[in-house]
Amino acid sequence: MIEFEKIINLTVDKLLKYLQENKNTDTKVIDYKSPQTLKEKLDLSLPENGVPLADLIPIIESYLDHSVRTSSHKFFNQLWGGFEITGLLAEMVTSTANTSMYTYEVAPVATLIEIKLIEALNDLIGFPQGEGLMVTGGSNANLIAMLCARHKLLPEAKNKGLGNHQLVAFISDQAHYSFFKAANLLGMGIDNVVKVKSDHDQRMCPQQLEAAIQQSLREGKTPFFVTATAGTTVAGAFDPLLSISEITSKYGLWLHVDGSWGAPVLFSNQHKHLLQGSSLADSFTWDAHKLMGVPLICSAILVKQPGTLLEACSSQGTHYIFHDDEDSAYNLGAMSLQCGRKVDALKLWLAWKYYGKSGYEARVDRLFELA
What we know:
single chain; 371 residues; seven-stranded mixed beta sheet; 12 helices; 42% helix; globular
């Protein structure tokens, strides 16, 4: 136990040193080395026999020395970055507790935290009866949204496949590539994801959307899904939700909002108008590891109609783990595509506790000022 505590303390010392170095203006974001050079510098071998715990400390130090310093003020490469103390605390706790999110029985506290967190996110969007789950990223959330839309239109596809139906999804030409991957996984084909032209502000053109829907109908295809992006990857543009929702309502299509980047504007009284009409959507993707600064991965899929996730994502052969008992309503795994699922809710819940809604409002407003 003494060695165990010593190793933990040494590791924390290395982490604190690393974080302090990141504040130094002379510290590079990364001391870049080619893959071949880096392989020669690192000991990547997996030994036949183990090594003492103490031997892991220089390995950890080497990992930090050669990693990209995303908490440096000079790091601008991605839509995420920085260091968040509540996230570190949460990751330490969840790794120590080492549980999974499939049943209340095995993760009682984490389950109640995730449910409360999902309720709070849905409240911001305008889904008063909504449901949701923490998932493995915005791409996964977008996939689940498309799956839910397919299930609403063709519930028989879950067991029998698409048959002769040629489903068509519509996204802007600025939308994330994950929708093409989702179309591949759902068996509808990448060619059936239609990119709708955007305007000079890189927002989807509603008129072009309706024209594309009408074209697919003339071709005998089945439109079923439209994505409005709230914060495009390149320009941070927000598609016009109200106009798009009128069209999806007219044609009976599922409206999904990919708020991976821009969802947190809902915290801001000054900027939430950018997501006016969010309550009209059927589903919503939220990445807290982007604008909110929570450590990767911290994503949620949020759905307006309760029961949708269970119907779309449940499967056979789960009787060994999900039981009809007094806690069954709290078994989140039943409506998840995953079985084992990490406790990602704690880091966002702790951060929200720490900053409060007002803190996130101030953060969003400040980021807009800087932009």
